[in-house]
């Protein structure tokens, strides 16, 4: 990929970071100038984050999180401990079915249920590929 070209994931990360920062600015009634003064992040750099035209480095994400009093993952999804991709409608249906069918089960029963599902899915995939 040529220098300067962003992947779709990088574009999405910038968008999410921008939304998260803007949410904090609105919720806390702040200005970019105030944030810049308290975090020592240049206003022009901060503007890039707010507009979604640049991506903050880890140090600046930490400065912003400390200033807002939130976790880094609440600004930048790259710091989230769980990777969460959007689900399509079929995947949502599977999750709903899983929740309905495992409601009230113990953790160990859910693990056994999940193992059975994995086995079933592998078998189904093999059957479909044999067609």
**Which CATH architecture of the largest domain would you pick?**
Orthogonal Bundle
Mean pLDDT: 88
* Poorly predicted runs: none
Which fold name fills CATH's third level, the topology of the largest domain? 434 Repressor (Amino-terminal Domain)
At the fourth CATH level, what is the homologous superfamily of the largest domain?
lambda repressor-like DNA-binding domains
- Count the E strands: 0
Q: What quaternary form is this? A: single chain
Q: Give me the strand/helix succession.
A: HHHHHH
Radius of gyration, in angstroms, nearest whole number: 21 Å
Profile the largest sheet. none
What is the strand content? under 5%
Share of helical residues:
55-70%
Q: What structural class do you assign from the helix and strand content?
A: mainly alpha
The number of domains? 2
Task: Note the total helix count.
Answer: 6
Q: At the first level of CATH, what is the class of the largest domain?
A: Mainly Alpha
How many angstroms separate the termini? 38 Å
Give the overall form: elongated
Structural description of this entry:
- With 131 residues, the chain is mainly alpha-helical.
- The protein folds into two domains: 8-79, 434 Repressor (Amino-terminal Domain) (Orthogonal Bundle); 89-130.
- It is 66% helix and 0% strand.
- The protein contains six helices and no strands.
- It has helices at residues 8-28, 32-39, 43-51, 58-68, 89-102, 107-130.
- The longest helix is centred in the last third of the chain and has 24 residues, at 107-130.
- The chain is elongated, with a radius of gyration of 21 Å.
- The model has no long low-confidence stretch (mean pLDDT 88).
């Amino acid at each position: 990929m040529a220098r300067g070209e962003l992947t779709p994931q990088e574009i999405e990360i910038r968008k999410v970071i921008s939304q998260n920062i803007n949410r904090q600015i609105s919720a806390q009634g702040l200005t970019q100038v105030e944030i810049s003064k308290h975090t020592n992040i240049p206003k022009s750099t901060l503007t890039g984050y707010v507009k979604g035209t640049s991506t903050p480095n880890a140090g600046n994400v930490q400065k912003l999180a400390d200033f807002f009093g939130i976790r880094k993952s609440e600004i930048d999804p790259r710091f989230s401990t769980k990777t969460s991709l959007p689900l399509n409608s079929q995947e949502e249906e599977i999750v709903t079915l899983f929740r309905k069918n495992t409601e009230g089960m113990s953790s160990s029963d859910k693990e056994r249920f999940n193992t059975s599902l994995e086995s079933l899915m592998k078998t189904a995939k093999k059957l479909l590929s044999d067609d």
